[in-house]
C-alpha cells in the first residue's frame, strides 16, 4: 500500500490574466521531491463568467523547459502559439503542449464561450522534462475527448478516462518523455475500489469535487490533494459523495530544478539564457 504523506488544501484563489481564477494546488517550490515529475498544478473554477464581447485570458507569454497540460472540464478555451498551432479545447479535451526549447503562446476563453458566458472549470498541470529533453523541439498534442479511452469500474462504481499511461491494460493517448499515469477518475457515491500504481513512482490524488476516503483513513474534499509515498503499489479509495478525482503518478526526475516564472531548467545559467533568449525574440512570436 502507498502510504499517505499528507493532505494539502490549495492556496487562496488568484487570477491568472483576467480569465483564470485559479487555486495553486501544488508547486515545485514547496512540494518538489514528492511531486516530481510534476511541477505545478493550477485548478481554475468552477467559476461562472457573464457574457461579454471582451476576450478574457492570458496574453502572449513564453515557456521553456517543461510541458503544460490543460484539461478542460467545463467551458471552452482557445490557444495560439509561436509554433503555428491554434485550436480550441472543450469539455473532456486535453491539450498537451511540450514547450521544451521554448514557445510563446496565448490562452483565452473561446470567443463564443466569451460571448455567451458560462461555467469554466479546468486544470493546468506543468510536467517537468528530463534535462536531455529540455531543449528539444516544441511539440503539441491535442487529445480530444473522443480519443481518450474510458474504462468502467465494475458494479457501477464509476469510470476512468486514461489520459496518459495505462489503466487495467488500456493505454492513454498522450506521448510523454518519462513514465506518467494521468487519469480522470469519476466515482459514484459509495464506490469503493483499489488503484494500482507503479512502485517507486510519486503519486498524488486531487479531489476536484466531492469527498474521498483514502486507505480507509484520511479524507480529502474539494480542491484537496493527497500525496503518497513512493513505496507500495496500491491505494484504496471510497467515495463519500459523487467525486471527481485527477490521479497523477510518475517516475521522479532526480535532477536539480531551477525555475523563474514561465521557465523551469536545471541551472541558474540556463534560466538567465532563457530570459535573454525571450528578450531577443529567440523563443518566437505568435504569427498573425
Ligand atoms: Mn502558458
Shape: globular
Order of strands, main sheet, comes to 1-22-19-24-17-14-13
Question: Whole-number average pLDDT?
Answer: 96
- In whole angstroms, the N-to-C terminal distance is 53 Å
Bound molecules: manganese (II) ion
- The share of residues in helices is under 10%
Low-confidence stretches: none
Question: Strand pairing plus helix content: what structural class?
Answer: mainly beta
Q: Output the helix-strand order.
A: EEEHEEEEEEEHEEEEEEEEEEEEEEEEH
Rg over alpha carbons: 18 Å
How many helices? The count is 3
Please give the number of β-strands: 26
What proportion of the residues form beta strands (DSSP E)?
A: over 45%
| Largest beta-sheet characterization | 7 strands, antiparallel
Could you please describe the fold and organization of this structure?
This protein starts with a strand and ends in a 9-residue tail after the last helix. Strands 1-22-19-24-17-14-13 form a seven-stranded antiparallel sheet, with no helix packed on it. It has a seven-stranded antiparallel sheet with strand order 2-3-4-11-6-9-12. A four-stranded antiparallel sheet has the order 5-10-7-8. Strand 7 and strand 8 (86-89) form a beta hairpin. The protein is globular, with a radius of gyration of 18 Å. The chain has helices at 28-35, 111-116, 268-279, and strands at 4-9, 14-16, 20-27, 38-49, 57-63, 66-74, 77-81, 86-89, 94-98, 103-109, 118-128, 139-143, 150-153, 158-164, 166-167, 170-171, 180-187, 192-196, 202-209, 212-214, 218-220, 224-228, 234-239, 243-250, 258-260, 263-265. The chain contains three helices and 26 strands. The protein has 288 residues and is mainly β. It binds manganese (II) ion. Manganese (II) ion (MN) binds next to strand 5 and strand 10.
